[in-house]
Design goal:
mainly alpha
């Protein structure tokens, strides 16, 4: 028996876009968000070296799609995809918090693994 992956009409996931006013970079369709969220959180815990490695692998092609000077261009597509707002905070606030988390992780320096 042969099986094929099919996306039914009306069920296609929309692309993730930057929501910063004036940017609206198209970051494509983000899949495996939970896996990438775990990898991103691990990089944040580990420090700048792991963060830079993650961003080089998963954000390099997307960073240039942002408008020059976009405040959140350093956040990978998975963060954009997961920050959609909730009852307590809107999406912009969530993205600013994620950027602060990145800044704090870089300031802490590399952490010993173990």
């Amino acid at each position: 028996m042969t099986m094929h992956a099919v996306v039914l009409p009306g069920y296609q996931q929309p692309p993730t876009t930057c929501i910063i006013e004036g940017c609206y970079a198209n970051l494509g369709i983000v899949s495996n968000t939970m896996l990438h969220r775990q990898l991103w959180k691990r990089a944040l815990r580990s420090g700048p070296t792991a963060i830079d490695a993650y961003l080089a692998k998963y954000n390099a092609e997307f960073r240039g799609r942002h408008k020059p000077g976009c405040l959140i261009a350093d956040l990978p597509p998975v963060v954009h995809a997961l920050c959609t707002g909730d009852r307590n905070r809107d999406a912009i606030e969530q993205l600013r918090d994620a950027l602060q988390e990145l800044t704090d992780a870089r300031a802490r320096g590399d952490q010993a693994s173990g």
